[in-house]
Amino acid sequence: MKQVLKLSIDMQSFWHIGSGEEGxxxxxxxxxxxxxxxxYIPGKSLKGRLRDAFELAAQNGWFSAEFTTVLFGQEGxxxxxxxxxxxxxxxxxxxxxxxxxxxQGQSLLYRTLQSTAIDSKTGTAKDGSLRAIEVALPMTLTxxxxxxxxxxxxxxxxxxxxxxxxxxxxxxxxxxxxKRTRGLGECSFTAQLEEQA
Length: 197
Description:
This protein has about 200 residues and is of the alpha+beta class. It has helices at about 45-60, 65-70, 95-100, 160-170; strands at about 1-10, 75, 80, 85, 110-115, 130-135, 140-145, 185-195. The chain has four helices and eight strands; from the N terminus they run βααβββαβββαβ. The strands form three sheets. Strands 4-7-1-8 form a four-stranded antiparallel beta sheet, with helices on one face. Strands 2-3 form a two-stranded antiparallel sheet. It has a two-stranded antiparallel sheet with strand order 5-6. Helix 1 (about 45-60) runs antiparallel to helix 2 and helix 1 packs across helix 4 (about 160-170).
């Protein structure tokens, strides 16, 4: 048995993780979806936000900068190293996913938001400035963080400490996804240690 960290991500507002695709007249930017057309947050995106939170925590004396490098690795021109953590994508629970798919309710999980630029002199919309973005509804998603036990820097005696530190840092994340500085993607994290076979 090994410990993993279960992250429950409570998305409290509309949110958008971009797919990089356009939806024609429907929306200029579509939300990333699984093969079953369900919204999710890629593990890579979560790991990036966790790293940001961990670096902020380290700057405020919670952890050492070296600890951040051990967990998340290091990138640069001279050096690329992998970190200890592995982050799964955040998804709806299996029960919720099955229910939605069986009842063909995927389209009910999304909305489109429109915005336009206003000309300050005339007070009218600027030509060609209307944009529509597809967003997902508020929901709770779950991800798991595990540790690479074959990593050369892995220390079995620190296993719980690593995960506890990640749980503490995750509390600093209050938004996810695109346009999070403009009101989208408000969220809160709840972390729990779990035993996994």
